[in-house]
Amino acid sequence: MTQTDDHPATRMRAAERRELVLDAAMQVFGDYGYVGSTTAQVARAAGVSQPYVVRMFGTKEQLFLDVITRALERLLTSFRQAVADTASAEPLTQRLGSAYVNQLRDRGLLLSLMHAFVLGKDPVIGPAGRGGFMQVYRFLRDEAGFGAAEAQGFLAEGMLINTMIGLRMTDEFDGDPEVRELLECAFPTKIDLVRSLAQ
């Protein structure tokens, strides 16, 4: 059986194959953005054929929209778990911040969202990105109980984190003391995790 077989090594149900392709797509879109990615790259990363990806999702655009929907669901699930963890001694803002940074373990999740957020002019992806951003804001306001200014500050920190990850600032950690200072300030308890995931 070849790497690009439509049925990877063990036979999977359609839903499992779909998840496999979405995992691969999230990594590819996270690494190269929507414009810079192709369904052929996604197929190679998933170990399936490119026509199989197209049959499953129709277009690259629809695949990206499905990745964004899934990324938002995972992010909000992790936030809800942080809110529910009332036994923790950590303040809620810290628990939510940790939950956000921990999404870096899910390669491509935060950067796929970031790529959607910068495509505001696109007639299809733009509304999806705005809708997703506002989902997070409404969660912070309605479920986490943040005031408007607190929610705005949390989102601003999240966008700074995304920017630094997208820029691969960790590549300069050892050689530039100001980069090190900025990263240690942004990730006071998670810098080792962030550096290891950036390798």
From TrEMBL:
<dbReference type="GO" id="GO:0003700">
    <property type="term" value="F:DNA-binding transcription factor activity"/>
</dbReference>
<dbReference type="Pfam" id="PF00440">
    <property type="entry name" value="TetR_N"/>
</dbReference>
<feature type="DNA-binding region" description="H-T-H motif">
    <location>
        <begin position="38"/>
        <end position="57"/>
    </location>
</feature>
<keyword id="KW-0238">DNA-binding</keyword>
<dbReference type="InterPro" id="IPR009057">
    <property type="entry name" value="Homeodomain-like_sf"/>
</dbReference>
<protein>
    <submittedName>
        <fullName>TetR/AcrR family transcriptional regulator</fullName>
    </submittedName>
</protein>
<keyword id="KW-0805">Transcription regulation</keyword>
<keyword id="KW-0804">Transcription</keyword>
<dbReference type="InterPro" id="IPR001647">
    <property type="entry name" value="HTH_TetR"/>
</dbReference>
<dbReference type="InterPro" id="IPR050109">
    <property type="entry name" value="HTH-type_TetR-like_transc_reg"/>
</dbReference>
<feature type="domain" description="HTH tetR-type">
    <location>
        <begin position="15"/>
        <end position="75"/>
    </location>
</feature>
<dbReference type="GO" id="GO:0000976">
    <property type="term" value="F:transcription cis-regulatory region binding"/>
</dbReference>
